[in-house]
Amino acid sequence: MNLQLFLCLSLTLSIEVLGKKSRIIGGESADIEEFPFMISLRLVDNNRHICGGTILTERHILTAAHCLTGISNIHTALKVQAGSTYLSSNNATIYNVSCAYIHPLFTGKISLTSQMQHDIAIILLGQLINFNDVQNKVELPTEDVKHGSSAEFIGWGALFYPPRSLSDQLQKTPMSIITYVQCSRYIRYYLRKEQFCGFEDKGIGACMGDSGGPLVINGKIIGINSYVFPCALGLPDVYINVYSYLRFIRQIIARDQCS
């Protein structure tokens, strides 16, 4: 499976786009107790971190749909690591994956008319998470995203671009929610209302390893990292608007077994 997904936006915007496995650049070190809902999605065969994710319930993990594409037999190919600040920790808790629900309208591509739409998925775990100080659920948003808000993005993505390796320690960085008009100055194609842009400054942003990770405000998840223009080069990052998918999320959470 390609751990780095570069996507070109046709001739109109001929720069690289990094979807799969993007990293935080310009952030600072964080501790899992600050963000106990944060998990590492990994490949079973080599224990490699591929995406971030967020604990929704004792059995449900929220992530980006593109993190799961191209993986056959998800229940045997993937696992979830929770409860650790460090990717390399021997004290983390590992959970098996039973199945995953990818949004049925996920487009899986970027073009002028289809910009990785509905890039959201929920993983159902094989065991219940025992909530404590280092692994606990996130709160869902109660209102739509407000442009101009200041949020925080979390992940284990690479610390430099071009990416050489992931960050072993969890990272966090501020991220401002910008308007569609502001975003269109950088990204010259249409974003749907289920998507929004985050931008703080040049030298700050997501990159390889950060896809699927949460954008939060006061402990509530408002966005899922979908794709970036590699990496922290002065262009916005694109997020899935969690508020737009509350119905989908609640429908899947209501299922306690794979079907």
TrEMBL record:
Range of residues in the leader sequence: 1-19
Transmembrane feature ranges: none
Pfam families found in the cross-reference section: Trypsin
Domain of life of the source: Eukaryota
The entry's keywords: Disulfide bond, Hydrolase, Protease, Serine protease, Signal
GO CC annotations, alphabetized: extracellular region
SMART domains: Tryp_SPc
InterPro entries assigned to the protein according to its UniProt record, in alphabetical order: Peptidase_S1 (IPR050430), Peptidase_S1_PA (IPR009003), Peptidase_S1_PA_chymotrypsin (IPR043504), Peptidase_S1A (IPR001314), Trypsin_dom (IPR001254), TRYPSIN_HIS (IPR018114), TRYPSIN_SER (IPR033116)
Example GO BP: proteolysis
One GO molecular-function entry: serine-type endopeptidase activity
Localization (cell): Secreted, Extracellular space
Domain Peptidase S1: 24-254
Annotated SUPFAM superfamilies: Trypsin-like serine proteases
Chief location category: secreted
Family according to the record: Belongs to the peptidase S1 family.
UniProt protein name: Chymotrypsin-2-like
Source organism of the structure: Ceratosolen solmsi marchali
